[in-house]
UniProtKB/TrEMBL annotation:
Coiled coil region boundaries: 49-76
Species the sequence originates in: Pedobacter yonginense
Similarity comment: family membership: Belongs to the GrpE family.
Complex and partners: Homodimer.
Matches recorded under Pfam families: GrpE
GO MF term (any one): unfolded protein binding
Role according to the record: Participates actively in the response to hyperosmotic and heat shock by preventing the aggregation of stress-denatured proteins, in association with DnaK and GrpE. It is the nucleotide exchange factor for DnaK and may function as a thermosensor. Unfolded proteins bind initially to DnaJ; upon interaction with the DnaJ-bound protein, DnaK hydrolyzes its bound ATP, resulting in the formation of a stable complex. GrpE releases ADP from DnaK; ATP binding to DnaK triggers the release of the substrate protein, thus completing the reaction cycle.
Protein name (record): Protein GrpE
Length: 195
């Protein structure tokens, strides 16, 4: 019984092999190769397309991160600029607080003072302290009287006849002092010029 079954299985295997060999004609082989190549091309096209999509996604993510970083940078610098403008004069104001305290003391002293000489002396000391504090911050006054009129530093209010020939074109009087801060004019001196 077992022998019959073995023989029967052998016969089926032989028939399958014959059928397979019949199907493997050159035309069938070409069709099989073509469909295999077609599938390979589709797989490679899909893989290339997938790679491109992945690359586009990576570049898009990189762009978004850079844009966010730049936006944060703009906000941070704008905030720093506003803070700088709000506290730009802080250094100068802090240095002037001692002068303000001296003025307050001088005003109290003036209320009870009977002699005017010490009050004048105190006011002169406070004025000198104020000028020295501002000079330390880079403030200088513009020398004007008897100097040549210079539009870089002076603003002419009026012309008057010069008292002498050598005073023509020079500053005769100063109505308001001019100042420079770190060699940049912050207020022009208002002057009277000899004509």
């Amino acid at each position: 019984m077992f022998n019959k079954k073995k023989n029967h299985d052998k016969e089926e295997n032989i028939m399958d092999t014959e059928n397979t060999s019949e199907n493997t004609t050159p035309e069938n082989v070409e069709n099989t190769d073509a469909s295999a190549n077609n599938e390979t091309e589709q797989v490679s096209e899909l893989s290339v397309e997938d790679k491109l999509k992945e690359e586009v996604q990576q570049l898009n993510d990189k762009y978004l991160r850079l844009y966010a970083e730049f936006d944060n940078y703009k906000r941070r610098t704008q905030k720093e600029r506003v803070e700088l403008l709000q506290t730009a004069g802080k250094d100068v104001i802090v240095s002037l607080l001692t002068v303000l305290d001296d003025f307050d003391r001088a005003l109290k002293a003036m209320e009870t003072a009977t002699d005017i000489a010490p009050v004048k002396e105190g006011i002169l000391l406070v004025s000198t302290k104020l000028k020295n504090t501002l000079a330390q911050k880079g403030l200088k006054d513009v020398e004007s009287i008897s100097k040549e009129f210079n539009t870089d530093f002076h603003e002419a209010i009026t012309n008057i006849p010069a008292p002498t020939e050598d005073m023509k074109g020079k500053v005769i009087d100063e109505v308001e002092k001019g100042y420079t801060l770190n060699d940049n004019v912050i207020r022009f001196a208002k002057v009277v010029v000899g004509a």
